Amino acid sequence: MRLLLLGATGLVGAEVLTQALRDPRVTEVIAPVRRAIPAQGKLRVMPIDFENLPEHAEWWAADAAISALGTTRRKAGSAAASRHVDHDLTLGALRLARVHGTPTLALVSAAGANAGSPFLYPRVKGETEQAVKELGFSFATILRPGLIGGERSEHRAMERIALTLAGAAGSILPRAWRINPAERIASRLLDAALAASPGLHIVRSAELA
User: In sequence order, what are the residues at sequence separation of 6 or more whose Cβ sits closer than 8 angstroms to the Cβ of residue 48?
Assistant: First the structure.
């Protein structure tokens, strides 16, 4: 299985990479990245400019693609810049994967994704989901995690507070409100990519708790 991994340097993407490299079902991991990461084993690192994607690169053709690309408004600098990463850059890369014949997709979205939401984050995630559905992947799985647990490289104060409160509440919370560990999200993404079922499948946060 040749796996195309988008977002390999993020919290969830890095966990997918770790699991994919030790999974015997995966023969090669192709990681297009904005900043270089060390090559290892069956990992093939492709430093690229996501604003100017190499449209004819042969490595877009994979058995499956996993997309964990994403950012926040604070990190991106503005609402427009955040949407550009989560929607435009994600769709640009996935469109090329589909054009080159990649049949399977596993995508990280978010709980509450809704293209009609008045709030930026769920609206952009919902718009991205809609656009992804139109790309025509034969096998597609969309994960909608809530609070994602794990150690990030950047500091997110409000998210850290929410994670602390959710962790303290533990099992008394409804499953949909509990922390979704990054490693569990990654595992479901990898399984969805490698053991794909025809059609579109939605995995909600309660199933990832």
Answer: 32, 33, 34, 54
